[in-house]
Amino acid sequence: MEIKELMKKATMFHGHICPGIAIGVLVAKYALENGFEHSPDEELVAVVETDNCSVDALQTILGTTYGKGNLIHKDYGKSNYNIYSRKNQKGVRLSLKKTIFDNKKLSRDEKIQNLLSLEPENVFEIRNIEYDPPGMAQIEESLPCSLCGELTMESRMMNYQGKIMCIPCYKEFKQ
Ligand SMILES: [Zn+2]
Ligand SMILES: [Zn+2]
Predict the structure, then answer these.
(1) Nearest bound ligand to CA 24?
(2) Alpha-carbon torsion, ordered 45, 50, 56, 61, to 10 deg
(3) pLDDT tens readout for residues 44-67
(4) Beta strand 142-144 with 151-153: parallel, antiparallel or unpaired?
(5) CA 18 – ligand 1 centroid, Å
(6) Over the stretch 107-146, which tens digit does the pLDDT of each residue have?
(7) Of the bound ligands, which one is closest to the alpha carbon of residue 171?
(8) 166 CA → ligand 2 middle, Å
(9) Rounded to the nearest whole angstrom, what is the distance from the C-alpha of residue 43 to the centroid of ligand 1?
(10) CA-based R_g, the chain, Å
(11) Where are the beta strands (DSSP E) in the chain?
(12) Is the pLDDT of residue 103 over 80?
């Protein structure tokens, strides 16, 4: 798919056009062109180290989505994107080069145009990484919390003084 079409698709989902979306589109485009196919299920896993705008482009274009559990956010505040293919058993890491926004005089639009005109190698440090993806999403039972009664995934329940409770109740109860 052409970069323009990818931008259009990602922008429709994201809500506005911004340099972040352009960066995410470049990540996704690179992945698609290098043996990582769009993921209707959990064929791909993206482990991203940022929660900024760019991640929405990965959700739209690569199909690595929050709801399917094949989008994992590590809250490091870094523009690093690790993508794994379960099908091909391979992984790639793209990290945004620090020189990319050196020209501070560029307007927002110019930044976007500039990004989209560059080769991926000029925007990111790119390297293959060991195939070491997080496990598949688990489907698990939910149980009612003994305090608020709301259904809560079993693995998120806390046991405090013999009572099984959800995390918010636990935090309140413990005080
Ligand atoms: Zn944005
Ligand atoms: Zn509760």
Answers:
(1) 1
(2) -40
(3) 999 999 999 999 999 999 999 999
(4) antiparallel
(5) 5
(6) 999 999 999 999 999 999 999 999 999 888 888 899 999 9
(7) 2
(8) 4
(9) 26
(10) 20
(11) 44-48, 71-73, 80-85, 90-96, 124-129, 142-144, 151-153, 158-160, 163-165
(12) no
